[in-house]
Amino acid sequence: MNFPEAEVRRFVDELHAKGMRFIPIVDPGVPVAILNPWYSAYNEGLEQDLFIKDITGEPYIGQVWPGPVHFPDFMHPAAQDYWTRQLTKFHDMAPFDGLWIDMDECSNFCGNSEQVCSNATVISGECPLEGHTNVDCCLECSVVDENNTYDFPPYYMRSFKGPISRHTIPVSCRQYGDIPVYNTHNLYGLTESIATKNALIAIKGNEKRPFVLTRSSFVSAGAHVNKWTGDNGKEQRRRYNSHHCAFIYYTVYSGICFLTCIILLTVVIANTVAIAATWQDLKSSVVSMFDFGLFGIPMVGSDICGFEFETTEELCTRWIQVGAFYPFSRSHNALGFAPQELYRWESVTTAAIDVLNIRYRLLPLLYTLFYTAHTAGTTVVNPFWYNFPSDRDSYELTTYQFMWGSAVLFTPVVERGAVSTTGYFPTGLWYNLASMELQFDTLTAADITEKMFTLDTPLLSTNIHILGGNIIPTQDSGMTTAVSRASNFSLLTALDGSNKATGSMYWDNGDQLELKNYIQSAFDCSIKSDGSGAGSFQITVNHDSFSSSESEPADVSPLFLRELVIVGKEIFTNADISTIYMDGIAVISGVDVATYILFDTLHNRITVKLTDVLAVPLSSSVMLSWD
Question: What average pLDDT does this structure show over 259-263?
Fold first, then answer.
């Protein structure tokens, strides 16, 4: 470590005391420690013969951030124990909560058509060269077999990245079992991901859910890790890091993405979208969420404000208004470019506070969507066609709208200088989340022209709508998820054209690996159509192994449902409610009813306060009704 161990430990302890988590970055390359014989990760790897071999049979030397490195062979049977030991030593120094594994394609600052590299310049002290950084290759590399058909195939791809091994491990290198990297290249990130996940479980125990963030991914990666879409962008275009695959068919079932590919070089689901500070990359980031959801990797996001190039205040503002609703939400940019933290500009700060507060309020919904994705193989972020497959008008839209599940619609501004945007609203009732009132009614829309609307969206505004027919669980926004999850719940209910809505919620301690202790509830609301405002709200706890468990810390109070907020289209014209019932038993009547049920005629809103005699613990099934 380049920082004093005691100071790092103190820093991590402070984060933990504030309910925050520490997730450092780890690259696979192990520094060649010829001049540092005390470095155990290097020595153990050599002793156990755990590094990928070059064409001569020696451990391949590449160059990454530490300088010259060897790359662990995660296909080796002993690699898991080795990797767990190294991460355990790191955890003993700085007790991290998860790991961000980068450069796991593997990435290599050397590598063009050369097959072997020497560390002679390392020994002589000439690496890195004067005036250069570790990004600039300073190894002595050469070709030893120009007839090797892996490195020099009888055909050449028209890849703008150049030769097949450009900036990665030569494909003539060998992994365990004498398998050429040509056949295993795209599995490297996956095998490191699995090894890292297993190491975290070994370190944290079976009761702690491992968090691993990867850049490289492959089929099944979503069962093990989370993903960000990469820090590419120098070419300002979509790139595949020398991997090429034409997907001709895919389907999703039980969380697994099955793909049939025309193999041009190797099959990969990895490193797909260039994330530069450009408006086009902002748009591409939305598409990438759809892509990886279908690939079975729902926890995905891009670098907010862009990675390469200089961002702008306007672009960063609009980007956080989108990125706050990526499943994985993070701002990150490249070395050598201007800082772009969200507090750098007043407008970005204001926008970030607004949308991140919304994100934290909606975390119970997002968490429930992840539970459903985990257990039923569904997606979290969806395009229109996923939720409205028969709506052909939505198939070729370029509005870059996206939905959380089937309930919440985001209509972002993704054009430079725009203060309005056009949004498409499929058949239904659409309620503005900010005001919780009906904004668009397309129930009787005849064609696409009656479903397209212009939304005024000044720089600090965001367009978020709830589709009628849905009930959404929310909590208070806090500075951390630990603070937010300690608050009681509200249920936002957006009625459909029949004055009905349904929803669900999953809740656990947020940390368990096996889903043993949890609450799973269903909600059902119905309001009479006679204009009286009378109605019912059914809360059904389908499963509760959480309340009697020790999943929550002892100092966390039991959680309750705090209020019901119900909005609809002319749901009451002459509200006349005299009695409130719980499970059919009258509990409040007369003038006291007005204390618990509030009718907002202007916004067609009913608010039911769940306090005192109406208090409803999260673990309770109950039928509330009023007439």
Answer: 26
What are 548's two structure tokens? 């009697």
Helices 313-323 & 279-294 angle (0-180, nearest 10): 20
Number of helical H runs and strand E runs in the chain:
13, 36
User: Tokens at residue 215, please?
Assistant: 């850049």
Degrees (nearest 5) of the Cα angle 452, 325, 286? 60
- Whole-model pTM? 0.91
**DSSP-H helix ranges across 328-412:** 346-361, 363-376, 384-387
pLDDT exceeds 90 at position 111: no
pLDDT digits (tens, 9 = 90+) for 153-170: 888 777 767 888 889 999
Nearest to 290, CA basis, from 345, 264, 252, 321: 252
pLDDT digits (tens, 9 = 90+) for 80-103: 999 999 999 999 999 999 999 999
| Position 1 pLDDT exceeds 60 | no
Beta strands 140-142 and 116-118 are: antiparallel
d(CA 318, CA 305): 8
HSE-up (13 A, CA, CB side) for residue 603: 17
Give the whole-angstrom CA distance, residue 156 versus residue 363: 48
| Contact between 428 and 468 (Cβ < 8 Å) | yes
Per residue in 117-142, pLDDT (tens digit) is 987 776 766 777 777 877 889 899 99
Pairing relationship of beta strands 585-589 and 429-432 according to DSSP bridges: unpaired
* pLDDT of amino acid 242: 30
Give the list of residues 6+ apart from residue 20 with CB closer than 8 angstroms, or none: 480, 482
Residue 108: how many CA atoms within 13 Å on its side-chain side? 29
- Of all residues in the chain, what percent carry a pLDDT higher than 70? 90
Known catalytic residues are: 102, 105, 231
- pLDDT for residue 551: 54
d(CA 388, CA 401): 13
**What integer is the mean pLDDT of 161-184?**
93
Hey, CA dihedral for 589, 593, 596, 597, is it positive or negative? Answer: positive
User: At 10, which helix (H) or strand (E)?
Assistant: helix 5-17
Q: Name the residue type at position 232.
A: N
Q: Which string of b and e fits 395-428 if b means at least 16 CB within 10 Å?
A: eebebbbbbbbebbbbbbbbeeeeeebebbbbbb
What amino acid occupies position 527? I
Q: Which residues contact 309 (CB under 8 A, 6 or more apart)?
A: 233, 236, 276, 277, 278, 337
Distance CA 205, CA 223 (A): 18
Please compute, for residue 331, the number of CA atoms within 13 A of its CA located in the half-sphere on the CB side.
21
Round to whole Å and give the CA distance between 571 and 530: 8
- DSSP-assigned letter for residue 204: H
Q: Strand (E) positions, 254-395?
A: 256-263, 300-301, 303-304, 330-331, 381-382
- Whose tokens are 């068919």? That residue is 249
What contacts 544, CB < 8 A, 6 or more positions away? 518, 519, 520, 619
Residue 594's Cβ-side half-sphere holds a number of Cα atoms within 13 Å equal to: 5
Q: Do the bridges between strand 585-589 and strand 579-582 make them parallel or antiparallel, or are there none, so unpaired? A: antiparallel
- What is the DSSP pairing of strand 605-609 with strand 226-228? unpaired
